[in-house]
Structure formats: C-alpha cells, structure tokens
Amino acid sequence: xxxxxxxxxxxxxxxxxxxxxxxxxxxxxxxxxxxxxxxxxxxxxxxxxxxxxxxxxxxxxxxxxxxxxxxxxxxxxxxxxxxxxxxxxxxxxxxxxxxxxxxxxxxxxxxxxxxxxxxxxxxxxxxxxxxxxxxxxxxxxxxxxxxxxxxxxxxxxxxxxxxxxxxxxxxxxxxxxxxxxxxxxxxxxxxxxxxxxxxxxxxxxxxxxxxxxxxxxxxxxxxxxxxxxxxxxxxxxxxxxxxxxxxxxxxxxxxxxxxxxxxxxxxxxxxxxxxxxxxxxxxxxxxxxxxxxxxxxxxxxxxxxxxxxx
Length: 310
Fold this sequence. Notes:
Layout: H1 5-18, E1 33-34, E2 37-41, E3 49-54, E4 61-71, E5 78-88, E6 107-108, E7 111-112, E8 117-127, E9 130-141, H2 164-169, E10 174-179, E11 191-195, E12 208-218, E13 239-245, E14 258-262, H3 264-267, E15 277-284, E16 289-300
Antiparallel strand pairs: 1-2, 2-16, 3-15, 4-12, 4-16, 5-8, 5-15, 6-7, 8-9, 9-10, 9-11, 12-13, 13-14
C-alpha cells in the first residue's frame, strides 16, 4: 500500500493527538500484541484470555501470514488469527432490522451500547498435533474477555444466530457460526486441517513454527488470489476465505487447503461490500502462553481514513 507524504504527515499529527484510538472497547489490555508479534500470557489465568489489535485504516480484506510459534505435537496453548469487517454495531444499522430511532445507538435494557462491535474472526489452533480453524461472526460485543465474547445466555449456553439479519435484529451479544468442528478443549470449536506441520530451525529444536495463510477478500472484485473464480454478479456480497499451508507466500497458481464462501445472507451485504477495520487476534487457554505472529502481507483497498478519535 502506497501512501502520500502529505497523508503520512497528517496521520502522524493526528496519531500524536488521538493515539489512533479505535472503539472505546479495550482491545489489548496488557500489551499482548506488539506490531505483528503476539504473546498472550495466561499462565496464571483460570479462563481463556483474549486480545486483539485493530488497524487504523479500513480495508476490504487482507492476505495474512499467520504463525503459531514454539509449537510441539503436544501443544494446546490457544489461538492466533485475524478479525475483519470490524465495526461498531451502530455503524451496521444501515443493513439491520433495528428501528430508525435506534439507528445511532443499540440499546439493551438501560445500557446504551454505542461502543459494541461486530466482526468476523478466523482462528487457528494446534491442539495436540492437529491443526484446526474456525470462522464466526460476532455481534454486539462489549467485552473481549467474556466467555465466547459475551455471546452466552444466563444458563451458560452460546447464543447462536442463523444469519446477519437475525444477529443485528437484537442488541444482545450473539454468534453466527460459519465453520466449526471438534478440535480444541472441551469438545472443540475448530475444524481439522490435518496433522500440524511444525517446521523447526534445527533437527535438535524441541519446538517449531506452524505457518498458515488466510486470504480474505470480497467476491466479484479485483482482490484476492483466486478472484477469477468469483467474478459474477451472483457472487457480490460474499466474503471468500482461502487457507494456504506452509511458509511460502501463496500465489494465484497455489491451491488452497480450504476455501470458505461466506454468503451474502451471512455477511449482510446484498450489494458491494464496504470497507472496515481488521485486527490481529490471539488467545491463550487457561494456564497457557500462546505465541504467534500475524503479518498483513497485502491489504485490499486500504482507505486513508482515521476515525473514532474520541
């Protein structure tokens, strides 16, 4: 992405004044994410610990290099991944069933959720030698570290919705499951990608790195390595997620290990997909330390926007 010197100077000035603040919702409470590096230390924790760090620019998608570090065949440390289509819940009101008088603020009882957020997430985990991933969309999240991002009812059950319309019709936190499976603790939430390929610097190393790529892009646009496969009007409004395995940067001739088509009913976009923020994500299971790395190898249609400076 190429930015003008004029814009960069303006960004630096605004950054000094506002700190590139995102939503008021706390993102990374204790500095678990520094640049592309992720170290979520939950060694003394009793529940899963989560952190995310969002971009200051909006994008349509990203090609992300994701690394799970210091892994072995018996690791069960946590999750590393990418959040995208991240926006305040109120900003999604142009495509929701929420009444017009609530278009600015989502209301739950007496609490006004002006800083609640909606987002898609893809997470990767190495659980006892099996590499798995999941994809979900969450709505009206007000606390990152609540169980299931707060999408739980009073009985402790996950609040699951079928599509974007039902997710946005309520002001309480909920989850739309796109891909899940049985990999992970307590029955698991991730779909298996097979045996984790752990690459070591030396044969004497006790642990190594798992490399995976997520290419996330809107269909029927000029973005994405496999964009030619999704180039009709019927594809408009979809997100495509292509997963590639291994350290080498994928190209248009590479074959994805998995491809996920997220339909327009699931995305909530009946026409052209709009730009939104992205974020690096990491979580560590109880008593664990999760180390990883997320690099935006390419960002699609990054806009020169600084917002939410509050």
